[in-house]
User: Fold Ig-like domain-containing protein from Parnassius mnemosyne.
Amino acid sequence: MDRRMRVAEALLLVIIFINCRVSAFVAGADGPVTFQEALENGNTTFFCDATPDTSDDELMLLVWYKDNESIYSYDARVRTEWSNIAFNMSGRLIADTGKNPTSLTISALREDDEALYHCRVEFLLSPTRNTGVNLTVTVLPSEPFFLDELGNTVTNKTRPYYEGDTLVLSCLVIGGRPPPKISWYSGETLVDATYSVSDIPNVWQNELYLPLTRDNAETLSCRASNTRLVPALEASLEIELYLPANQVKIQWVQGTSDGVLRSGETVTAQCEAYGSHPPPDIIWRLENKRLTKHSNQTWDISLQAAVSFIQITPTIADNQATLTCEAVNPIMPSSERNSKAAVMNLNVTFGPKVEIIKLDDEKRNEVVELDPLHLKCDVKANPPADKYMWYFNGMEIKPGGMWGDNISSNELFIEEVSKRHAGQYACAARNTIGETRADSISIIVLYPPECKKPSITLNKETLNCNVKGLPVPDTYFWHIQQIEHDSQHLTTGSSSLSLDHVAGPLSEYLNVSCEAENGIASQYKSCTKTIGLGHLRPPQPHQCDLAFEYKEFQIRCIPVENATHYELSLWRLSKTNASLLLDRKKSIDVGNSLALTQNGDEPWLVRGGLGLLNTGDEAGAAACNRYGCSAALLLRPTENLLSAAVPPWWKFLTERDTGISIGVVLLVIMFACSTILAIRLARRSQTKPQVPVIQVLQLDDVTRDYLNRTGDIHVHPSCSLRSNSSDCTDEQDNPSLVECHCAHTSHEWVPPPDVTLTLQRESAV
Ligand SMILES: *[C@@H]1O[C@H](CO)[C@@H](O)[C@H](O)[C@H]1NC(C)=O
Ligand SMILES: *[C@@H]1O[C@H](CO)[C@@H](O)[C@H](O)[C@H]1NC(C)=O
Ligand SMILES: *[C@@H]1O[C@H](CO)[C@@H](O)[C@H](O)[C@H]1NC(C)=O
Ligand SMILES: *[C@@H]1O[C@H](CO)[C@@H](O)[C@H](O)[C@H]1NC(C)=O
Ligand SMILES: *[C@@H]1O[C@H](CO)[C@@H](O)[C@H](O)[C@H]1NC(C)=O
Ligand SMILES: *[C@@H]1O[C@H](CO)[C@@H](O)[C@H](O)[C@H]1NC(C)=O
Ligand SMILES: *[C@@H]1O[C@H](CO)[C@@H](O)[C@H](O)[C@H]1NC(C)=O
Ligand SMILES: *[C@@H]1O[C@H](CO)[C@@H](O)[C@H](O)[C@H]1NC(C)=O
Ligand SMILES: *[C@@H]1O[C@H](CO)[C@@H](O)[C@H](O)[C@H]1NC(C)=O
Ligand SMILES: *[C@@H]1O[C@H](CO)[C@@H](O)[C@H](O)[C@H]1NC(C)=O
Ligand SMILES: *[C@@H]1O[C@H](CO)[C@@H](O)[C@H](O)[C@H]1NC(C)=O
Assistant:
């Protein structure tokens, strides 16, 4: 056995020797050549087909050569392997002949392993088979690294640049075989592949000149590659590029629907600012006014944006205001280029704000009659008001009538204002938010003075011009016409005119006209009226009597109110016929009628001398003032009074000093006579007068009773004496035919025997 082994080894050496001699391999001529690449320090596997062409053939020997030097052999006959010890240092050769094809793996490859390898297979029958492998061992370069233009290394991040700056940067690698390609990439985009050998041996570089933009300044990378077996070696750099925000978004995020705001309701807006480096400062503005109460700004990583929120509560004034969100780069020098803004207009909706405005006139609330009235409903509303309503004195104005048909708009136009249009006006407007009614304004219609009814009145002694007008008239023009008198023109500042200011007798009636002025226009038609003044005359005196005093007849009257003087008349009975003729007339001034009660209970009397009266004569007294005289009260002296006026036959006695005794006797006789007379009078009347004068008291009652009782009266008295009694009715003008129907007949009054009433007579007869 030992022997056989030794033989076999000897044989193998022979074969190897033979092999070595014939190891020269000519590529292409001796067999095919494949190319194979492997990395330094890596491994590679060569394959060699060792199956015989025919089944009766058999493998004898398999040998691998590096160039012309054998590095491995396998003797199939004795199944022994051999390896070149110099090549199989550290056991880096591994062969596998069991498989088909057979393989030979070399690991821990070195640069000098690069060579042309070939495999020679010997068969028992078949010819020798050669297969070549051209192995390239690639040496990877170092990791790329960066140098700036000053030769400083740059790691991870460049120095800051502004957009538009040109980046100058070199990417370098050391070593590598074959020489590596060096390329610059921005992201995945190749930006520069112009590599070259550097000044330093065994160093390759690629110098980049890159104008920086927002798009190419993403991560910048340098790739170095000299084989396809492994990915390129890559080093990347972040470019510190200061960029303004390039996109700013503003939007409502809370409190609105469709961006419609309500005044007074709080809403939240969000602002997102993209593209700024470093993160921007977000500034909020509302219509150029900076808002500070916004949220803290945050950086949203998923959005890569700065985010800020703001809450605002818009008012009506903010409608259509602009909400601005501006992103300002805090590092870039301030200029237009360092910021970007987004704007949003606020659509603040609100119910109408309504106010009435009077157009076309400087006077705010006044309009002159017949002028136009133009009111405008001034409405601020969002959305705009779509309906207007007008109100007059609280009632909605309906078209038609005094309003015309054109009232549904925001303007109310009345072409010719009348007094009916004075009042409170309001308008209301409606939009989708609500309805609002304005504060009403009061419209005053001014108009020139016009007469009221009655147009002129007399109150006591004052004339009143009854006109209405707005403003209240301040000047009144009076025209007063009296019979047989020039017309008078007076001006007053008020509507009343005292008759004191009217000159003239004022005895009958006045034709008065008045006209007022209030600055608007002159009165269209003056007021006129005929004013009777008869009622201003004093009442008829009705407490008068006749007396014989101071050697003449006197008519004495208790003064009546408002009389300034009295007219006394004396009527004489004609000697030839029965008519009375006016003999004398005189006026007595009584001065002030306030002196009515001068001496306490004693009435103050108006008295006038009449001279001597005869039987049938009459005296009359009428009370007068500037408006004329009352009817006269006529009195006729009785026989007793007349006889009392005759001087007594014994008068001469009194003229002498014939002694008091006669006087005493006469007094006794007179006492007796007067006693008798008193007894006679007492029989006829309870109210006998004390003195022989006519007493006329309560003349109307006297008259009536007297008429009823006596048949021998001379004249019927007139009931018109009862100027104040409504119980009597004047049927005719003739006072002598008056019939009186008086209600009060209970008072039984027997007239004194001395009284004779006469026909009432007008003094003017
Ligand atoms: C050869 O290299 C490959 C990867 O390149 C590895 O998986 C393998 O184990 C290596 N073989 C040897 C024998 O070293
Ligand atoms: C292999 O060939 C080279 C030239 O090709 C020669 O110089 C060298 O001596 C040879 N080596 C052997 C072992 O034959
Ligand atoms: C290479 O050497 C190692 C140990 O030195 C050995 O185990 C191996 O078999 C050798 N390779 C071949 C192909 O002979
Ligand atoms: C092996 O390949 C290299 C590169 O491809 C080439 O330069 C060389 O001439 C080749 N060698 C042979 C023997 O073909
Ligand atoms: C560069 O980046 C790496 C990994 O991100 C880090 O470990 C290293 O410290 C950085 N170098 C510098 C100078 O910042
Ligand atoms: C903003 O930040 C300050 C302090 O950084 C903090 O006190 C405050 O509560 C924050 N405000 C909001 C709205 O987050
Ligand atoms: C505001 O919002 C209202 C209600 O949606 C709408 O009618 C109106 O047209 C808007 N105005 C503007 C200016 O957008
Ligand atoms: C209604 O009044 C308005 C404003 O006064 C005016 O412009 C318009 O012509 C009037 N329309 C009619 C039908 O009178
Ligand atoms: C007063 O007016 C009436 C009617 O208007 C007229 O008949 C009369 O003559 C006038 N009198 C005077 C005094 O003018
Ligand atoms: C007197 O005149 C005044 C003022 O005019 C009046 O009020 C009064 O009634 C008159 N008196 C009589 C009795 O007529
Ligand atoms: C009565 O007499 C007077 C003269 O005494 C005379 O004037 C008058 O006309 C007479 N009247 C009658 C009606 O005869």
